[in-house]
Amino acid sequence: MANAAQPKEVIIEPVGDPNAHVSWCQARYKSYRVSDNSWQPYHGPRKPCISPYL
Protein backbone atom coordinates (compact mmCIF):
# COMPACT_ATOMS: atom_id res chain seq x y z
CA MET A 1 0.00 0.00 0.00
CA ALA A 2 2.16 2.81 -1.26
CA ASN A 3 -0.55 5.44 -0.76
CA ALA A 4 -1.64 4.46 2.75
CA ALA A 5 -2.94 7.38 4.79
CA GLN A 6 -0.43 8.67 7.29
CA PRO A 7 -1.59 9.55 10.82
CA LYS A 8 -2.12 13.28 11.24
CA GLU A 9 -0.47 15.19 14.06
CA VAL A 10 -2.99 16.83 16.36
CA ILE A 11 -1.97 19.92 18.29
CA ILE A 12 -4.22 21.05 21.12
CA GLU A 13 -3.91 24.67 22.12
CA PRO A 14 -5.76 26.32 25.00
CA VAL A 15 -8.48 28.51 23.57
CA GLY A 16 -10.74 29.17 26.53
CA ASP A 17 -10.73 31.04 29.78
CA PRO A 18 -8.32 29.45 32.30
CA ASN A 19 -10.66 30.48 35.13
CA ALA A 20 -13.49 28.55 33.47
CA HIS A 21 -11.23 25.49 33.28
CA VAL A 22 -10.39 25.65 37.00
CA SER A 23 -14.04 26.24 37.94
CA TRP A 24 -15.15 23.28 35.81
CA CYS A 25 -12.54 20.97 37.35
CA GLN A 26 -13.35 22.08 40.90
CA ALA A 27 -17.06 21.46 40.30
CA ARG A 28 -16.45 18.03 38.75
CA TYR A 29 -13.75 16.65 41.09
CA LYS A 30 -13.74 17.23 44.86
CA SER A 31 -10.06 16.25 44.96
CA TYR A 32 -9.03 18.71 42.21
CA ARG A 33 -5.71 20.42 42.90
CA VAL A 34 -5.04 23.67 41.00
CA SER A 35 -1.27 23.59 41.56
CA ASP A 36 -0.77 20.61 39.25
CA ASN A 37 -4.18 20.46 37.50
CA SER A 38 -4.90 16.97 38.81
CA TRP A 39 -7.61 15.02 40.61
CA GLN A 40 -7.44 11.83 42.67
CA PRO A 41 -9.62 8.89 41.60
CA TYR A 42 -10.70 6.33 44.20
CA HIS A 43 -8.05 3.92 42.91
CA GLY A 44 -4.73 4.63 41.23
CA PRO A 45 -2.56 7.69 40.75
CA ARG A 46 -3.70 11.27 40.27
CA LYS A 47 -5.02 12.16 36.81
CA PRO A 48 -4.94 15.43 34.88
CA CYS A 49 -8.17 17.37 34.60
CA ILE A 50 -9.17 17.80 30.97
CA SER A 51 -12.08 20.21 30.63
CA PRO A 52 -13.95 21.49 27.58
CA TYR A 53 -12.16 24.81 28.18
CA LEU A 54 -8.66 23.55 27.37
UniProtKB/TrEMBL annotation:
<comment type="similarity">
    <text>Belongs to the BA14k family.</text>
</comment>
<dbReference type="GO" id="GO:0030246">
    <property type="term" value="F:carbohydrate binding"/>
</dbReference>
<protein>
    <recommendedName>
        <fullName>Lectin-like protein BA14k</fullName>
    </recommendedName>
</protein>
<keyword id="KW-1003">Cell membrane</keyword>
<dbReference type="Pfam" id="PF07886">
    <property type="entry name" value="BA14K"/>
</dbReference>
<keyword id="KW-0430">Lectin</keyword>
<dbReference type="InterPro" id="IPR012413">
    <property type="entry name" value="BA14K"/>
</dbReference>
<dbReference type="GO" id="GO:0016020">
    <property type="term" value="C:membrane"/>
</dbReference>
<comment type="function">
    <text>Has immunoglobulin-binding and hemagglutination properties, and can bind to mannose. Essential for virulence. May be involved in LPS biosynthesis or polysaccharide transport.</text>
</comment>
<keyword id="KW-0472">Membrane</keyword>
